[in-house]
């Protein structure tokens, strides 16, 4: 596998844009408790001051230098870590009352704090990557057509004037003036975790779990454009990055969202080296992911769609994972496993009938 070093001179500026933008948005943000809000503000102010490669316990600050490993914990930190996570809340990409709104990531961060599952409480076991770099256009273009990427960037001026745009033919996908930059950051969060987990795998046999807490979501975005609230295929971009930059050959992607990950499905439909496996509720949006959709050409057999009846619930999901997914993954022998972990199959706040509970989401997310 070819190993490419890609350079983009503007990525540091992009990261700074994000930091400043987040501070601005958090100042405007009132829905959540002041504790969480202040913590985010505090963190981001600290981030600006500490941007030049200082490290604090449990958090990784680094220079955005694409020539070096952009944002990877030290060897010592990698040896101790159980979880490495990255957060990209896309506060400027928002539409009030929309189901895919900017309160989602802060709500998760708040819950993690309450459950004492952050580095503040767990020390070196949990590391949050800070100031990771946004994805570059070349990273995005490994999955999406360049015309789409440049078209979206150009549309930002119009979004800026109008405040909000709806993208034609994409289902109800909206864009604001910051959507392009914040989508690059969401994809960058996954890429930085790939860098970290791959580095960890070189110093220990059981590398830590990486968790990207990001929006806009990605798995409906198709190679030629956005779809279903999704802008860039975050997990697909991370998969291609693992191949292109780290030389990993075989990637196994599990998508357990209640909806079919049609974008990821399409990106790798004829690729024998990326196995895409999706469980989803039969008949739900966007209507794809039938059991006979198994890949095409050289990729035939490396896509597995498992549409489940509405109401399947915990037991069905556990059975599918134990009896189908795990044997499948063992047979495929991947170099890395990526999980496209959409949580709208969860029993609380879900519009689906699948009703999976926390303990089982953790089961599928971490056991295997
Ligand atoms: Zn979904």
TrEMBL record:
Example of a GO biological process term: chromatin organization
Protein name as annotated: Histone deacetylase 14
Keywords, in A-Z order: Chromatin regulator, Repressor
Cofactor(s) the protein requires to work: Zn(2+)
Gene3D superfamilies: Histone deacetylase domain
Domain Histone deacetylase residue range list: 98-354
InterPro entries cross-referenced by the UniProt entry: HDACs, His_deacetylse_dom, His_deacetylse_dom_sf, Ureohydrolase_dom_sf
Lineage: Eukaryota, Viridiplantae, Streptophyta, Embryophyta, Tracheophyta
Native species: Forsythia ovata
